Amino acid sequence: MVYSVRRNRPARLLRFSTIVVLSLGVFSQSIPVRAATPAQIDAARLAAIRWAIENQNGNGSWSGAGAGVLTDTSAVVDGLRHAGVDGFPYSRGITWLQNADTGSVDGLSRQVMALNSAAADTASGMQRLLGARNERVLAWGTYPGYGASFPDTALALDAIRDTGTPYGDAGTTLGFIVFNQNVDGGWPYAPNTVSTSRSRILPTALTLITLIKYRNDGWGVQGFIDAGINWLIAQQKGDGSFGDDSVGTVVETALSYLAISAELGAAHAAAIAAQDFLIGQQAVDGSWNADAFQTALVLQTLPAVLLADTDSDGVPDAVETLMGTDPLLADSRYLSSGNGNGIAGVTLPADVTSTAVGDAYSHNLADTGGSGPFTWVIVAGALPAGVSLDSATGLLSGTPAEAGTFSFIYAVTDAAQQTVQRVTQISVAAPAYAPDGDLNGDGVVNGADILLVTRIATGNLTPSAEQAIRGDVAPLVGGLPSPDGQIDAGDVLVIQRKALGAISF
User: Fold this and answer.
1) Is 239 in a helix, a strand, or coil?
2) 3.30.1950.10, 3.40.50.10810, 2.60.40.10, 3.40.309.10: which CATH number matches 351-429?
3) pTM higher than 0.70, yes or no?
């Protein structure tokens, strides 16, 4: 069955009109508000950032007591970005996410949105997410093909909207959501099941956040949003918190704040009271319940600001003051507290260059600004294979032979024996070509390739970067090329045999 949000359903619309009329007073309800001061909010933000940086895992991820590592990491990088932190701790989290895998719709949706916010590629993730849809109802469940749930469907629609992915069934999926809204205005976790039919805070808040994003698309969802917001606000407890049980929780309160503030503004009494509750729950160490997901979620509820970062190491000056590090000196792992900077010898490189495997690379390292002659030396980390440092000139040069991110610290000493250390990074992309013997790139290995490789091996032709990779096919190990970094007689022989059909790889 195909839904349409604008489909004529008089009884349904009348029911929601009644809800809105009966609930008009909720929007302006009077909740005792003891607003946190701007100084208290700023202090909470800085303490949370510090906790996040100091509790980042060595591989760039975050993990807590509740949600999975991918969900935690996605939430923290979003929280850091919202708080104005986009340096090394953030980029390490994004790098980890780019290489992480998950089977759940929740984790995949959050991963895609976090990567999209960093302008990283999300095409494959979105392809997987679209393929995980329950085709019977055109909505999403916990795992691919599972029965649909409102939280998972909301997160998937958020990912589609945030990434700008074309989705022709938006009206049908939104119809699944709004036509399963409970009569009280809230949503359960899943439709038409006895155990989950009661309206709950988490699915209602997540669904409202999604509907608000789609409300200007002409689907006519505003009445459903109004009813949901009214129900949500009516659930707020006297201390400003939200929760399905007798005591409110950090997660439910933070999500409720995000939904209410998105619809009614951060100055609404319910939003202010929720934020006051959240600020009051922060632990001395700066976290919320020592949990990465909860801490990140609250961080997203605090106003976005621009934080000064004098040394450009990705750790704001005010956070470095809390950590006891020098805001004028780019931190290495030796200077910063905790393991939050994840990679040996560097917090954020002050000098970042990029190249690709097989491409000629050349870059001059900076000097001290003093008087020459200067001497350069690598003191921590490592250069990619194929690249070397000229200690007398500071020139990095060579042809990278391995892909990856190579972080290192170098020291430069001038004639007066004044030494300065700097953090640096070389990003080496994987080669666009493989050692396949097809030197001219025409899709076949034949006499033309034999001629090219022979001229290169005899020194009569300087290979291009592509030819250097495609032609380096010897020796063969287990029937496959094992490049040795040079093109010689062995490569000529292997390519001749492949051209004759004697071998294949």
Assistant:
1) coil
2) 2.60.40.10
3) no
